[in-house]
Write a structure and sequence with these properties.
- This protein is 45% helix and 17% strand.
- By secondary structure, it is an alpha/beta fold.
- The protein has a single domain, classed as TIM Barrel (Alpha-Beta Barrel), CATH 3.20.20.70.
- The protein has an 8-stranded parallel beta barrel, surrounded by 10 helices. Strands 9-8-11 form a 3-stranded mixed sheet, with no helix packed on it.
- Strand 1, helix 2 and strand 2 form a beta-alpha-beta unit.
- It is globular, with a radius of gyration of 19 Å.
- Bound molecules: zinc ion.
- The site of zinc ion (ZN) has 4 residues, from loops.
């Protein structure tokens, strides 16, 4: 079942677990992630960065939608780090049910302005999917009923929007260093930002970085800051769910703590790809192998071991039942 991010994360937030957002960019990875997710009966977010979308092409989204429609678990198709209005519109037209607009490197007011524009466009976009029928509670009155009468009988509400506030660190894997210019998210700024923009979900900076940490580097998450941001939003009457980027390589116990204390979505990209391609390098040592169906299954299994670990760690295993 294909749903939008707001619906998906609300349940996670209320039940104190987090849902993994796996970045995938080929068909084997899509099937691998869906298979392990269904096996563990976990909700899942399939995430694609604009650079990955350029690589696989928007037609691939049709396959993802079909896989989600036939799935036993709730699925969101999410654009990771949309860099422009045009990135976001491309994703909405292709059928994503959630988009991120990342203007976190811009000044606060500019970040607000672009998020407002994206929220208006995304919330106006009705995304036809496989959810229920015209008795759906999201059809609020006769006008909505009329509007949907001649369309497909099944739809999810609008497209969700993720904004980002603060600066997540970035790892220079060549130099083996971490860019220490992390600008931590302040609770009062989060309230101001969400109130002004209407974003459905918010990526916050509490001490993670994108990429894989150099050997010996121990990152530290600020769980107290996370709790304060979550509490400030709820006190202000905002139901925005929180997102953690750069979750690859942080200590397991800290990530599990974050999932219990207000983070509802955790992005995982480097960790699963690392497992996939490490195994592929091994498999390709055998010069006689050239068929994808011979080379890929072992690599997918290696990727699934990591994905399964994340699903369990975030407390998401078995949680698809909460959506029935
Ligand atoms: Zn990110």
């Amino acid at each position: 079942m294909l749903v939008n991010m707001k619906e998906l994360l609300k349940v996670a937030d209320e039940n104190h677990f987090a849902i993994p957002a796996f970045n995938i960019s080929n068909h084997a990875m899509l099937n691998g992630v869906m298979d392990i997710t269904e096996k563990l009966n976990a909700p899942v977010i399939l995430e694609i960065h604009p650079n990955e979308l350029k690589h696989i092409g928007t037609d691939f989204i049709e396959s993802m939608k079909a896989r989600a429609a036939h799935s036993t678990v709730p699925v969101v198709i999410h654009l990771d780090h949309g860099a422009s209005f045009s990135n976001v519109m491309t994703a909405i037209r292709a059928g994503f049910t959630s988009v991120m607009i990342d203007a976190s490197s811009k000044p606060f007011e500019e970040n607000i302005a672009i998020c407002q524009k994206v929220v208006e466009a995304a919330h106006s976009a009705i995304n036809f999917t496989t959810v229920e029928d015209l008795e759906d509670p999201r059809v609020k009155g006769d006008a909505d009923r009329e509007e949907f009468r001649f369309g497909p009988a099944h739809f999810a509400g609008n497209v969700s929007v993720e904004g980002e506030l603060g600066t997540i660190g970035s790892i220079n894997e060549v130099a083996g260093s971490v860019d220490d210019k992390i600008v931590y998210t302040e609770p009062e700024d989060a309230v101001k930002f969400v109130s002004a923009t209407g974003v459905d979900t918010l990526a916050i900076a509490i001490g993670t970085s994108h990429g894989l940490y150099p050997k010996g580097y121990v990152p530290k998450l600020q769980i107290e800051r996370l709790k304060a941001i979550h509490a400030a939003l709820r006190e202000a009457g905002l139901d925005t769910c929180l997102v953690l980027h750069g979750g690859s390589g942080n200590p397991d116990d800290e990530i599990a703590e974050a999932a219990k204390n207000g983070v509802a979505k955790i992005n995982i990209s480097s960790d699963i790809k690392d497992a996939y391609y490490k195994k592929m390098r091994e498999v390709l040592q055998d010069m006689g192998k050239r068929e994808p169906m011979v080379i890929e299954p072992e690599c997918i299994r290696a990727m699934q071991v990591v994905a399964a670990h994340k699903i369990e760690l975030f407390g998401a295993a078995g949680k698809a039942d909460l959506y029935k």
